[in-house]
TrEMBL record:
It catalyses: UMP + ATP = UDP + ADP. This is Uridylate kinase. GO terms for cellular component: cytoplasm. UMP binds at G54, D74, T135, G136, N137, P138, Y139, F140, S141, T142. ATP binds at K12, L13, S14, G15, G55, R59, N163, Y169, D172. Its EC number is 2.7.4.22. Allosterically activated by GTP. Inhibited by UTP. The gene is pyrH. SUPFAM superfamilies: Carbamate kinase-like. It comes from the Bacteria. The keyword Ligase does not apply.
Length: 240
């Protein structure tokens, strides 16, 4: 019988992952596939927290680049993550996985407010917790949210599921045929070489709190379970 290598995980999904091949919005087939993969972890008795980006609906940086106030653009991005979180919650609950959405921006009609101790209690009761609305502050990415929440709930690992790459490369593999994939890296490597994995704030937070990170592709069904059970996929990033 398969066993998880980790007891408590944070799964970081990009908003684009929910868009599937259409590239924008929410693809019902893709979100259903992700929900089914999360259920596989749920059945392994893993405690699961999820952070979803909002890039399939709105990108704050793109709005800011076109003259919008950066804080306003970022708040709009946070609201996009709430929409994605509710969609994922609905898909999970349709297949029998108890799920709670906690939002960093208070909106009691649709989600609980983020309370660390309540989130941990949900996890202990084997409920999936989806953290929405980023950190609740502009200028911080959902990558930073993943690192912050992982530290707060004392997660064993962050699983970063990418939509178009299967790990970390020294160049963009979609444009450079000679791009080399890394099997293992340290956070210092990420910061020193400027590798496009997560922003520097998130990388520093993970490094300071010794939180391992696995970067892999979500395109192949079953990869989330493979990462949790310790299979050698993607790129492993550690503090040392």
């Amino acid at each position: 019988m398969e066993q998880s290598k980790y007891k408590r995980i944070v799964l970081k999904l990009s908003g684009e992952a929910l868009a599937g091949e259409q590239g924008f919005g929410i693809d019902p087939d893709m979100i259903q596939s992700i929900a089914e993969q999360v259920k596989e972890l749920y059945e392994l008795d893993v405690e699961i927290a999820i952070i979803v980006g909002g890039g399939n609906i709105w990108r704050g940086m793109a709005g800011s680049a076109k003259g919008m106030d950066r804080a306003t653009a970022d708040y709009m991005g946070m609201l996009a993550t709430v929409m994605n979180s509710l969609a994922l919650q609905d898909s999970l609950e349709h297949i029998g996985v108890q799920t709670r959405v906690q939002s960093s921006i208070e909106m009691r009609q649709v989600a609980e407010p983020y309370i660390r101790r309540r989130a941990i209690r949900h996890l202990e009761k084997k409920r999936v917790v989806i953290f929405a609305a980023g950190t609740g502050n502009p200028y911080f990415s959902t990558d930073t949210t993943a690192a912050l929440r992982a530290a707060e709930i004392e997660a064993d690992v962050i699983l970063m599921a990418k939509n178009n790459v299967d790990g970390v490369y020294d160049a963009d593999p979609t444009t450079d045929a000679n791009a080399k994939k890394y099997d293992k890296l340290t956070y210092l490597d990420i910061l020193k070489d400027g590798l496009a994995v997560m922003d520097s704030t998130a990388s520093s937070l993970c490094m300071d709190n010794d939180i391992p990170l696995i970067v892999f592709s979500i395109a192949e069904k079953g990869n989330i379970k493979r990462a949790v059970t310790g299979e050698d996929i993607g790129t492993l990033i550690r503090g040392q």
